[in-house]
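During the reporting period the student researcher (J.K.) took over the structure-prediction task from the postdoctoral fellow and processed the backlog of single-chain submissions. One of the processed entries is reproduced below for the supervisory committee.
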Amino acid sequence: MHAVDRKQQLQTWLESSIDASPIVLEPASADASFRRYFRLRTGAGSLIVMDAPPDHEDCRPFVKVASLMADAGLNVPRVIAMDLENGFLLLTDLGCANYLPALNAQSADALFSDAIDALLRWQLASKPGVLPPYDRALLTRELRLFPDWYLKRHHDLALTPAREQLLSAVFESILQNNLAQTTVYVHRDYMPRNLMVCEPNPGVLDFQDAVYGPITYDVASLFKDAFISWEEERVLDWTVRYWEKAKHAGLPVDADFGIFYRDFEWMGLQRHLKVLGIFARLNYRDGKKAYLEDTPRFVRYARAVAARYASLTPLLRLFDELEGKAPARAGYTF
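J.K. obtained the following structure tokens:
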């Protein structure tokens, strides 16, 4: 459908759904998908309109997960009206203040404390069989974005059979760790841009891709973010705080923090490699160029983890090669 026709279809649906006139939509936000969000001003305040073209997006998971999160005590948008066939949702508005610009050295402890508490409520509500599993097939598809889009497309790196073999071994090590972790509900993009500063704090957005998977995934997403980085000492401190609260709440975290932190790092690595591929794909396939500016952050995250574990040495060598840092000695190639 042409964009103008779709906008008119959305206007017509809104006119039949709410008692507000005139219907004036302001751009609210956009994300890395085909979804668009508009803010609708009314006499009683404001509402959010989601436009999710059904050829590309499905609103049903959003509606389902919103209900699960609300039942778990999280502050999420409430669905006021829906047209699932055409991909339109009318939602309550959690405001304009997301965590990212609000975070600084002074505010981070309090904001992340609230985010940890909300995450614990979400994880404590977990039940198997409700959300799609974050299984080997899905984790592997995500990892493959790294060679397919970041290595081959962005860096024009030829994946020889030897390189594929080394990369497969690295991926298998990552997958074995990820799949051995205990499983809970996973938001899957629990990062500052998807958390809103509001009351109760935080408001939680962009949860439609939620799955049932490794317990460290959302923790890694929160503290190893795409758009802001922290010193390792602070990340370690916040991760300890999460772990202590999780233990106290009865969540199945490992009793040894050292093991939990290792799992946190390896789960984060899976996400870092996936995001490198996604950001490259957003640039080359979708024309969204701004995301590539943040790939160095993920390279730094991945390099730091790869440098700590012997089985990840081939990955460290790969990044050395891409950045022209590989020592000129025999055998030091990826």
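The committee noted the following: The chain has two domains: 3-92, 99-322.
J.K. will present the remaining backlog at the next meeting.
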